[in-house]
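Follow-up to my post from last week.
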Amino acid sequence: MYGHILKYRLMCLTKDKDNMFWILIFPIVLSTLLYAALSNIGNQELFHQIPLGLVAEEKNEEVTRLMNATDLVEFQMMDQTKAQASLKNEELIGYVLMDEKMKFVVQTKGMEQSIVRLFLNQYRQTVGTVENIMKNHPEQMGSVVNRLETRQVFTTPVSAARAKLDPMLIFFFALIAMTCMYGAYLGLREAVDIQANLSDLAARINIAPIHKMKTFFYSISAAVIIQVLIISVLLAYLQFVLKINLGDRSVLIYLTSILGSVLGIMAGAFIGTVLKTSENMKNAIVTIFSLGGAYLAGLMNFSTKYTVAENVPILTVLNPVNLLADAYYALYMFDSLERYWMNIMYMIGFIILFFLGTYMNVRRRKYASI
Amino acid sequence: MVIKVNNLVKRYGDLVALDHLSFDVREGEIFGLLGPNGSGKTTAINCILSLLSYDKGEIEVFGKPMTPESYEAKRNIGVVMQNVAVFNELTVRENIDYFCGLYVPNKKEKKQLVDEAIAFVGLEKYEKFVPKKLSGGLLRRLNIACGIAHKPKIIILDEPTVAVDPQSRNKILEGIKELNKNGATVIYTSHYMEEVEQICSRIMILDHGKSIASGSKESLKAMIDVGEKISIELYDLEDEQMRSFRKLPNVASVSYEENLLTIHSYKAANNLEHVLEHIKTHNMAFGKIYSEKPTLNDVFLELTGKELRD
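User reply:
Got it. Predicted complex:
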C-alpha cells in the first residue's frame, strides 16, 4: 500500500505546476538573477577601512587614543593643506581637526561620512564622560572602565582563520533556506488532501479502508522525497553551474538542507491543519512565512539580517528561514560548530512543535461539520 | 439489512440537521433518499460513512456498528460524492487506479477492475485525459468510476447527476440499474423526483432532517388524496364556464391561469372522458390537453405544503 500511495502522491505533487514553479523554477531563476546582479560584490571588501585625514600638530596621547579607538577608519596624519587637497582629489572622505571641538570636515555627504560622524560623536561623548568622572568622582573610575570593556558588540565576528566573508553568500544562504521552506506548499497540499472537512478529495480518501495517519505519513514522505530532490538540484546548480563556493562542509550543508526541507513541509502541514481559514489564505500565509522569512534572513539586502539581529533579536530565533540560513552561514564561517548546532536545535524544536500540532488535528477520526 | 440507521440526531449549533432519523436499507435494493436541498440527505450519508460525528443514534453496516476503523465494512462500500473528487494532475486511468488501489492491493486484480470500470462508464477513449480536459458529463462518469471500481457490495451515490446533460444523465441512471442488477445494493440521494421514481425500488422522503414518508413509489402516491391532473389550453374562459368544470364528478379543484385550465381529480378517479365531453357540449375552443398521474412532487406538496423544487 505504501508503494501505491507513494507513487501517486509523487505523481500528483510533481505534476502540480503551480507548486513546482515556486519550489523548483523560481529559486533557480532567482539564484541566476542574483548571481548576475551581485557577482561583483564579493570582489570588494565588505568592511574596508574608511580613509580619513587627521590634522594634528603632533602624535600625542590623545591622537593615539583616537587612532586606536576603531578599526573602521584608516587615519592618515597630515597638515590641513594636504588634507584639503586629498579631500578635493577624493583620496579622503573627510578630515578631523584635532582641536577641542574635533571638527569633522567633509566635501560631500554619504554613508561613509555618516559612519565617521556617528563614530566621532560617540567618541566625544565617551571621552567627555570619562573626563567628567575623573574630575568629579575619581573613585568610580574602576567601574566605568569595566562597563566600557564589557560593552555589547552587535557586529558579527569574522573568523579570519576559516573564511573571508563574501556578502553574496548571505543572499544564497537565504535563498537555499527559502527553497527549503517552500516545502511548506507541499506540506499544505498534503494537509488539505487528508482532512475531510477541507476537501471532497480528502473525504473520499477518508472513506477508504486505510488508517488515516498511515495515509498521511505515506503522503508526507512523498513530499519529503520531492523536496529533497529539489534542494539537491538547487545545491548542484549553485555549486556546479554558478560555481558558488558554499564552503567545504558539503555533507553538513546537504544534511542541513534535508532537515530544512522537513521543517518546511511540517510548517506547511501545521498551517494547513491548525488554521481555520480558506485554502487561498493558507497559501498566502505560506508565502509570507517563506518569502518574508527569507527577506528578514537577508535575501534582498544582506544588512537586513544584521538589522534584525540588532533591533529585534527574538526574530532571528522565531524565523525558521533565518535559523536555516544562519546554520549555513555558521558552517561556512566558523571553525566551531557551536552556533551551527544551536540553530539545528531550534529547528528540531520547530519540527517537533509543528509535528505535534499537525498530529493533534489530523488524527481526528470524525468531523463536526464537512 | 445491510444498513440500519436508528434515531439519528445531528445538530449544527441550533440547527437540527437530522432529527431522530431512522431507516434501513435492504440487500439488493435501490434505496432513494429524496428531499430538497438542505433536507439532510448528504448529512445522513456522511454520518453513515463515519465522516461526520453525530449527537445521538446508532448506525450499523453489515450488522456491525459503523466507526472510522470499520475497515472491513469500508472495503465493501463505494461512494460517489456529490462534488467531483478526483486528482487534477492524474489521468482518467490513474485516478481510477489510485482509488481502486486503496481497496484492492493485488495488482493483477486491480488492473482488471480498472479496465472494467473504464468500460462501464464508457471512458475508454479518454483514459489518458486529465480531468480538466473532460466535459462535465464525462467528469461525472469519472467520479462514478472512482467510487465503484473496486466492485463494492454497497454503492452510495450522492446526487451524481447534478449539472449533467440529459444524455450523460441517462447513461448514469442506466449504469446504476446495471450495477444493482449485478448484485450491488444502492443508496441514491437526489432532489430530482423523476430520477428517484425512475430507478428506486424504495424511497424515503426527507424534509428538515426528518423522514416524512417512506415506501415504494406506488405506496407513497397512495398516501395522498390527489389523483389525475388534467391541463387544457382554453382561450378566453369566463368565470361561469370555469365554475362549470367544478361541478363535474370527482373534480377536487380547478384553476385557470394564462389560458391554461388545470383540473385536479380525486384519487383513483379517471376524469379525462368527462372533461372532454364537457368541452364538446359547451362548444369551447381548446388547444393541447395533458393528463398526468400524481408525482412524488405531489406527494411532497401534500405532506409539506411546498414544492420539492422550492
